[in-house]
Amino acid sequence: MATFKDFRNDVKPNWCPGCGDFSVQAAIQRAAANVGLEPENLAVISGIGCSGRISGYINSYGFHGIHGRSLPIAQGVKMANRDLTVIASGGDGDGYAIGMAHTIHSIRRNIDMTYIVMDNQIYGLTKGQTSPRSAVGFKTKSTPMGSIEQAISPMEMALTAGATFVAQSFSTDLKDLVALIEAGINHKGFSLINVFSPCVTYNKINTYDWFKENLTKLSDVEGYDPSNREMAMQTLMKNNGLVTGLIYQNTERPSYQELIHGYSEKPLTEADLDLNQEHFDKLVAEFM
Amino acid sequence: MINQLSWKVGGQQGEGIESTGEIFAIALNRLGYYLYGYRHFSSRIKGGHTNNKIRVSTTQVRSISDDLDILVAFDQETIDLNYKELHSNGVILADAKFDPKKPEDTEASLYAVPFTEIATELGTSLMKNMVAIGATSAILDLDIHVFEEVVREIFGKKGDQVVAKNMDAINAGFEYTKEKMDGNVPTMQLEKADGKHRMFMIGNDAIALGALAGGCRFMAAYPITPASDIMEYLIKKLPALGGTVIQTEDEIAAVTMTIGASYGGVRAITASSGPGLSLKTEAIGLSGITEVPLVIVDTQRGGPSTGLPTKQEQSDLMAMIYSTHGEIPKIVLAPSTVEEAFYDTAEAFNLAEEYQCPVIILSDLQLSLGKQTVEPLDFSKVEIRRGKLVTEELPEIPNKGYFKRYEVTEDGISPRTIPGTKNGIHHVTGVEHAETGKPSESAANRIAQMDKRLRKVENIRFDTPVYKNAPHEEADLLIVGFNSTRGVIEEAMGRLEKDGMKVNHAHVRLVHPFPTDELLPLVQSAKKVIVIENNATGQLANIMKMNVGYAEKITKFIKYDGNPFLPHEVHSKCKELF
């Protein structure tokens, strides 16, 4: 059986020292081993940006696509081979700006896969512009007078879009993060995990210390019930979205794959590509 | 006796014009006639003029006819917009309800038949279309029982009574026309057809059927005219094969999901029209650099932007050859008949996997939506070839090394593993990468990988890159086209030959990489070359000049008003050259 070390490769990440993304990388590797995967049965699909490089830093099948499109690529991979474990990942710009439509529609669609967003509230790789997660007033190279747009609340948004698994974590809480990724992989449907992953170079506001001061662990909230959508929404609103842990999970709703009419139980990759003559003749006859 | 008939039915969109044409055409197709239908419609659901022009012949026809024998009109607008196509013996069958008026400058005859009144008397005005079919049958001296089977198929679900009523309506239209106009109406009796059963389908049906035959088991697409029929067909048929179609949130999701599925190892397709293809261009580049097979259909319509969304145009040619930033290997096919649309689509999946690159199947509105009689498709001609897809067990790579997915090889094509394959792990990225897929910015690697990718398609094998009908060693004129202009050129060529001209015809089926070697001798041996195309700038003519040369010989005949070419237009333009 594979251990987390089997999910390591020899590529040195090009992230800045201290970047939150290192922990996310480690957490994915550990979670993959913990759920009993072999490297060849995991596909990590990532977007563009600093965090988008993550698929190249894990010893598994990996696809580093185009900006904002990790989700449709990942869904295609899962549709082709339902036996694979598919993880999509990228930054907040990737998932909540250029790729927002895919985020919302992936949530609605509920294909069995996990989406991990490394949320640093800034554009890092392009050297410090505002992100849809930047707070009002946040000064960046593209908002020198401070951002005047409202920040997106991804967890609330996910709940309203009909998410079946919504979680949030902080990159230094490695143990919690690993557990959430495992739960996300095991969840039968689409799981969204937003991870606060500080940018040490361009975000001097939302720092490690800032998160430590401002985050509330849901495990510390008395009576919190992640199966209660209303409670999830209220708790998020009350805490301005700054909570960590499993926010909401619906285990009742079947995944997309389970609902598709006629969808093969076997991976489509094993489908017989040959139509037989009889089947073809039947199709042809319909046009006569 | 006539061996060819041109019939048109017109009215307001949403009042059953399409189904009237459909019932008429299907019945005649089953008698063994060759049909060619072209719909004029607008980008709206109800209202606005629409018509369906159907050509009936005892031999295969692949273009709209110049003139018209019978015009069935449900409103005055239909008469006013279309009467000029009628020849002097032509007949207008119009609903008496709107008190039809014959324009002064036509020798055609007008007969008012109370379509609506007869239908209403029989139960519902909705059946006025059936009355019109009956009236047409009277003029054609056609046994109305030929419609019974089709009417039963369409209305059978609603019960025997509805079927009977519709047949009554056809009969009433027939009897009324026969009785009231006996002796007045010129009958147009069609020669008997061969009675063979042939398919009657649109190009999009053939593309979808070709995809199924070619092993496609997944589609991701976004609805758009005139491509949606492909996804609508596949969503009906794929479940029986374990596959499915996902209607995505947008065109970008459609193409990237298709790339994901293809990378995942299943044969997948996406289909759209110009606006969708514009949105897909970045992803086409991704497929190019990551060498993930990708099959895309572009059914061209009037551009740019929303342009003329329901009209014929062939203006995406350059965009399909060149679109995406940077340089990638790409294959662009342009089937010119419904039959070719079937075979080429099936073959596109082989090419995509063999050359590991995007393959675009270029169609156009006329080919994709024109409904026509199709010669039997030979399923045994369809092959499944998966290129260098690794299916055998792979040896373990020491020290967690990566599989050389982008190995530099002589033909440029590298072995390909799909996720799930043990010891086949590699990285895939749109960033320039080394043989294992890991990012690399080294100059030497850049050149090696770029050259490797581009040489893949240098010697592409494609059965018939150019369709040729070239009976003359030395021709006065070479006519060149692509996609749906095949039929109109064939027809014009026949007329020019009768005029005593020596004409060759070349139809480009592989538009990229351009089959220069195939065309060069034909261009060299012709006194003049004319390129027929539905766009405003002569895109194919320019590509010919660029690749084949002989610019001074090459002229273009362009049409970009949204309508397909008619045979007489091509005929007279070619004559003008001499």
Which labels suit this protein?
heterodimer, A: 288 residues, alpha/beta, eight-stranded mixed β-sheet, two-stranded antiparallel ribbon, 10 helices, 10 strands, 17% strand, globular, B: 578 residues, seven-stranded mixed β-sheet, 36% helix
- Low-pLDDT residue intervals, each spanning 5 or more residues of chain A: none
Query: In terms of quaternary structure, what is this?
Result: heterodimer
Shape of chain B: globular
Strand content of chain B: 15-25%
- Roughly what is the average pLDDT of chain B, rounded to an integer? 96
Terminal CA distance of chain B reads 36 Å
The fraction of residues in strands of chain A falls at 15-25%
What is the helix content of chain A?
25-40%
Alpha plus pi helix count of chain A: 10
Low-confidence sequence ranges of chain B = none
Following the backbone from N to C, one meets helices and strands of chain A in this order, namely HEEHEHHEEEHEHEHEHEHH
Spatial arrangement of strands, main beta sheet of chain B: 6-5-4-1-3-2-14-7
Helix content of chain B: 25-40%
Descriptive account of the structure:
The complex is a heterodimer of chains A (288) and B (578). Chain A is globular. Chain A has 288 residues and is an alpha/beta fold. Chain A has helices spanning 21-34, 70-80, 92-98, 100-109, 154-160, 174-186, 208-214, 229-238, 256-259, 277-285; strands at residues 42-46, 61-64, 85-91, 113-119, 122-123, 129-130, 165-170, 190-196, 216-217, 243-249. The termini of chain A are far apart. Chain A has an eight-stranded mixed β-sheet, sandwiched between helices. In chain A, helix 1 packs across helix 6 (174-186) and helix 3 (92-98) packs across helix 4. In chain B, 36% of the residues lie in helices and 21% in strands. Chain B is built from 18 helices and 21 strands. Chain B has helices at 17-30, 76-82, 115-122, 128-140, 148-155, 160-181, 203-213, 228-237, 251-264, 274-290, 317-322, 338-355, 365-369, 443-455, 486-498, 516-524, 539-547, 567-576; strands spanning 4-12, 34-40, 49-57, 68-73, 86-95, 109-113, 199-202, 218-221, 244-247, 268-272, 294-300, 331-333, 358-364, 371-374, 427-429, 466-469, 475-481, 503-508, 510-512, 526-533, 554-558. In chain B, strands 6-5-4-1-3-2-14-7 form an eight-stranded mixed β-sheet, sandwiched between helices. Chain B is globular, with a radius of gyration of 26 Å. The two termini of chain B are 36 Å apart. At the A-B interface, strand 2, helix 2, helix 4 and helix 10 of A face strand 7, helix 7, helix 9, helix 10 and strand 15 of B.
